[in-house]
Records
---
Amino acid sequence: MFDSGFGGLTVARAVIDLLPHEDLVYVGDTGRYPYGPRPLHEVRMFAQEITKYLLDEHDVKLLVIACNNAAAAALEDLQASVDVPVMGVIEPGVRSLISATTTGRIGVIATAGTVASGAYQRAVDATNATVDLTIAACPGFVEFVERGDTDSDEVHVLAERLLAPVRAAGVDALLLGCTHYPYLARTISDVMGRDVVLVSSADETAFDVRERLHGSDRAAPRDRESTHCFFSSGDAVSFSAIGGRLFGPELAHAETVPWA
Ligand code: DGL
């Protein structure tokens, strides 16, 4: 599993909770985050490089792109080019979002790169649901999470400004279309109001992973002890310090990926 940094840990948490007997290798590309402002072809290159590392060095049997931006840039490409199943977070998130709305007015917030890719518009269109979609980019949110700041006054002020379009649209369900955003859920919920359901792709993605493994001969036996390893392309010590605060004690230790 990989992400530009800590965001994919929200997906890692859901996968570990649902499939505790499976091993997990997580790469946070903190040396090159944020992906959001970068061109998609550059993010695709990063995704290919990390995938190669996970396949060559860790022999992974399934890959989760736990980053909307990287999934928007590289999901189809990787699905066509590697031999293991590759799963993203965009379709699972859209499924949850559509089942959460009652009014049909739905919102997605994501990084600038994900919004510009059009991936969410396409994924919603593909469902054929009769919904009214508003999408807003939230530049700056990822940087707050990467600093470990999830509820300061500053992030609240930024949220008031960035969430204005989805508030004005009167959405009743809002998809956190960046895996970092669940760490800002309290702030986002304060701004959106309690009547708006916040949806994250993490749980639905974990269900997809379970379904994919159980439909194959690759699932680990339920009685086995699993290992969870964390790698960062940035400073591994600060990755485990901030990551541990966000994720919990399982992330007491992280290592640096060899190309960093
Ligand atoms: N967690 C990534 C996502 O889901 C954040 C991208 C970034 O680094 O800007 O899009």
---
Amino acid sequence: MSRPRVLVMHPFLEPGPTMLAEAAEVERYPEGMPLEQEAIRRAAEGCSGILSQVKDPIGEQVLSLPGLSVVSNVAVGFENIDVAAATRHGVMVTNTPGVLNETTADFAFTLLLAAARRVPEGDRLVRSGGWTGWEIDQLLGQDPNGATLGVVGFGRIGRSVARRGRGFGMRIIYSDAVRAEAEVERELEARWMELPALLEEADFVSLHVPGGPDTRHLIGSPELARMKPTAGLVNTSRGPVVEEAALVEALRERRSFAAALDVFEHEPQVSRALRELDNVVLAPHIASASERTRARMSEMAATNLLAGLRGERPPNLLNPDVLTRA
Ligand code: GLV
């Protein structure tokens, strides 16, 4: 029996590449080729599976390819894939949930601390050679200990961030369309609130909602205006969740104390206005980037893809309706 062909959009860590090579003919997306649907469709012709990453736009044009049966995204987020179109065309879509929760939560907390205590500013000062010694009022920050942490989106990652907050003596409030089970609220002593009230009460706000049209500009000018001028905003979710121009204004005018961003509205472009501000910590979308977690994501994505190619239900199928459509 001939082996199925799969298109791997980008290099990824072991063990995934070896797992795929054992069971399929692997084609690599040509390096330097634009990440556009038309080009992806051409490259995927004759393939039964695609292994994609967050920057790959996989829409109707790609998903309507005859013979395509599964798209496996090496990420928990999947707003780069038109899942409804995939279901219409009988294509299974999978992601890599769970394995990156703790690593992503570690990084969200790292950003929170870095912004609160102005770590990058201190690093830049020392590196510049311009530091003249201890000063009573140098780089004064905000205390996470004893502060209120507002978690927006109280799913797996949001709850892991809340646990870290508890370890730092923070009070936890959260907002989410779905209220957490009483047991979880008890464990984390977490209080549910509507978003506007949370923004007014929190000293730090950490975003953990999914991307996509429903959460675009969830945090814009009116929301930033509700936040305390001493508050810090952390975004490890998706860039468009925050209206970047509004955030730049709030930070520039010191209406917001600080922000820390791992994701950007027009990734990988980061506006000069944002890059010029001192009171923002910037990271290149690396929240899940530990060696162990990226390897686990690789294994999970390859397992999903191979299951789909065998005609089995992949463990992390996002559109189960695809299995029951006529
Ligand atoms: C990364 O951003 C992911 O969604 O896993």
